[in-house]
Amino acid sequence: MNLIKNKGFTIIEAIVSLALFAIAFSGLYFFFGMAHQAYNNSEKRMHLNLMANHILDTIHAEAYRADADVANPFVTPASYNANLSDCSLYTAPDVRHTWCTELDASVGPHKGVHVDEVRTVEVVKDEAYLIANVALVVDAGIGEKNLIKTFLSRKIPAPRRPGPQQVCMETHNAIIAHVESEIKNCDAGTVPDLTVDWIVNYGGSLGIVDHKQKISCPDWTRLPREDYAGFSESGSAMTWLYDFWGRWVNTTFKFYINEEGLPATKPSPYGNNNHSLSMEGWNGIKHGFQIKERYCMSDQEDYLGNIAGNTLDCSQYTKRDPADWAGGKPALHAWSCCPDDSSGPPYNQCVDNWGSTRDPSKYGWTVNVIKW
User: 353 with 206, same domain?
Assistant: First the structure.
């Protein structure tokens, strides 16, 4: 009889092999767990850094609120102090509620495993600066002494506000841009008409009336409207454009209480709410027949051409008939009183410095012809 001998593992060998495999696998599993925890902690640290920077950026942005706004951190810095360990302390729309809920969503809620686990925001005012400190410490999940920490601090300067002269010049340039844009669109026929709205307080039974005037495009003809103020409502609009855009200026940049007793909507940047043509912060439009020849003559003390940025067209002075205007179009000018504000109040009134040749060290009228 032939005996067949089968080779294989004995039960002892199998047990030893399983034991060795278990030892090796347990080590591998241990290192895999550590790697996974390290990845999670790295992600937490990234979220903490992002959140801390987001908090500081928010405080910095809020500093641009109005100087009297109680939500401005320069006014009430303590309103941004926060303990982000408990979101129930704050309710929307409080920005601290947003910080807390976003932080919980990214790294989990506060566990309190260790006494050093904190989530605080502190804002204090230091003369012209804010000092904002953010401390975010969370549990790393691998023992009470293993913490992930982010500490950021930022010194925030008070935002620089535009001065009165800058605000006045921005209004001046906005007037030019608006009128030139309307001229371009109307000439091209890209809009059916131009419209200006204004209100007048007539008193009595009429009271305050909201007026609307339209000019058809591209023929520049005034369209009919209810006639309370006595204006003619027919014919070419060219002779009326000074009033048309002048009313737009007075409505859009209304910074004083006018003769109708209507309230101011935009205070003068120079702080004067009841001023006339001659005073600082005035912005308006002048017709070509109002631009005197001597404003363009360099040998005259009222010469305005040597003031930086000024552009004038004195060719229509005293000429009220469109037949005497080049192309039948009025030489409208944006005309503003934007004196230097570097020395503070009291500010120079432009009537006292009509042309720069009277006192070259000061500012005269800012004048720019509006282009067709």
Answer: yes
Cα dist. 43→49, 108, 116, 140 in Å? 10, 12, 20, 11
Q: Is position 40 within any domain?
A: yes
**Cα–Cα distance between 340 and 337 in angstroms, integer?**
10
What is the domain range of residue 285?
164-369
Which of 137, 157, 177 represents a domain boundary (last residue)?
157
- pLDDT one-digit tens code per residue, 41-89: 788 888 889 999 999 999 999 998 887 788 999 999 999 999 999 999 9
Is residue 20 in a domain?
A: no
Nearest-5° Cα angle at 13, 9 to 15: 120
Q: CA-CA distance, 4 to 14, in Å (whole number)?
A: 22
d(CA 330, CA 189): 19
Of 133, 157, 181, the last residue of a domain is 157
Task: Tell whether 333 and 186 lie within a shared domain.
Answer: yes
pLDDT digits (tens, 9 = 90+) for 298-354: 887 778 887 778 899 989 988 988 888 888 899 999 988 888 887 777 777 776 445
Q: In what order do the strands lie in the sheet with 366-369?
A: 283-286, 333-336, 366-369
Q: How many domains does one find in the chain?
A: 2
How far CA 120 is from CA of 135, 136, 140, 351, in Å, comes to 5, 7, 18, 57
Tell me if residue 134 falls in helix, strand or coil. strand
Which regions of the chain are under pLDDT 70?
Answer: 1-9, 13-14, 21-22, 24-39, 141-145, 225-235, 254-267, 272-278, 351-363
Amino acid making up residue 41: N
DSSP 8-state assignment for residue 326: G
Handedness of CA 214, 216, 221, 224 (dihedral sign): negative
Same structural domain, 214 and 235: yes
Is 16 part of a structural domain of the chain?
A: no
